Amino acid sequence: MTQQMMLERAAGYARRFDTLFEEYFDQVGTRLDAPSFSRFAPDCLRLLRELSLRGGKRMRVVVLHEAARLVTDEPAEGLDAAALSIELLQTHGLVHDDLIDDSPVRRGGPSTYYAYRERFPDHPQTALGLTVLAGDLALALSQRVLLEAPLPVALRQAMVEVQTRTAADTFLGQIIDLERDFAAAPDEEVLHCVADYKSSRYSVLAPLQLGLLAAGEEPARFERELRAYARLVGICGQMRDDYLDLFGDAATLGKPIGTDLRDGRHSYAVHALLAAADDTERRVLRAALGDPDSPPQTIAEVREIGERRGVPARMQAAMNRRADEASAVAAGWRSHWREEAVTFFERLPRWSVERAR
């Protein structure tokens, strides 16, 4: 399977899912037992719909479908419900992330938090409370869509268990992500742990597990290798995000660079900069770290320090190394799964470290 074939198939999954997601939101309001007088409940659903349908590449959905293809090329029962559950959990995470980070924009539109702030400018606690509850509702819907799916009881229960564990791991990831930024200089293993809990487990591991379950496979038999693969891909993806935030192209990204630096995040890029810089350069970096008003000139100076010290090349080499390790894990799946789908998972890590945004 060529890379072009991979991209075309992934785009096909995304298009089909976007139609499914739109149909879901067309119907979900009629299935919720909200009081007829409530104006806030339908408004909440509308905001969740708008955020959810402004989706990106839908890579979680792609991983889900390709995981099922590891076992069979026949249609697999439960994939639609699993895909909806995965993306509703993602919506939950985005709503709460934007609240935690005080982000005004998400996916080219207003964040849910800022949409509520605009609606209730004189009631900030109401805006905050409704944002929390909107995220909570998305989480509940991600469970409910599985509980209501017309699936065999055993399959439905297994999928709910995967998503419940995944949600708990993701919340722990959010907690340790906030905790990380209170450390003076967290070591790299802490960064790996945050990436694993906050991203890998719901973006890669859960879709793998759900896809295998839908295809009739028992993912617990392959727990160690699935977790190893997901962790490596998640680390690659987070390293790439952190790299692009400082060394990427603002026009391609569609947002200013240096956000992590201004927000005081101890990202992979910040970690690499602190390790490579001399004392004078570290003072420049630490002055910018956590300064929300840090001007573009200062961000450019920090970026120049990194380039002078070879940080981009070292980060790219580290990403490539882990991508190769993940590909090697996937290559081992040929002994028990279908060649074409294994090839997809071999190539996925490389895509994650070569993307421009």
Automatic annotation (TrEMBL):
<dbReference type="GO" id="GO:0004659">
    <property type="term" value="F:prenyltransferase activity"/>
</dbReference>
<dbReference type="InterPro" id="IPR008949">
    <property type="entry name" value="Isoprenoid_synthase_dom_sf"/>
</dbReference>
<keyword id="KW-0414">Isoprene biosynthesis</keyword>
<protein>
    <submittedName>
        <fullName>Polyprenyl synthetase family protein</fullName>
    </submittedName>
</protein>
<dbReference type="Pfam" id="PF00348">
    <property type="entry name" value="polyprenyl_synt"/>
</dbReference>
<keyword id="KW-0460">Magnesium</keyword>
<dbReference type="InterPro" id="IPR033749">
    <property type="entry name" value="Polyprenyl_synt_CS"/>
</dbReference>
<dbReference type="GO" id="GO:0008299">
    <property type="term" value="P:isoprenoid biosynthetic process"/>
</dbReference>
<dbReference type="InterPro" id="IPR000092">
    <property type="entry name" value="Polyprenyl_synt"/>
</dbReference>
<keyword id="KW-0479">Metal-binding</keyword>
<comment type="similarity">
    <text>Belongs to the FPP/GGPP synthase family.</text>
</comment>
<keyword id="KW-0808">Transferase</keyword>
<dbReference type="GO" id="GO:0046872">
    <property type="term" value="F:metal ion binding"/>
</dbReference>
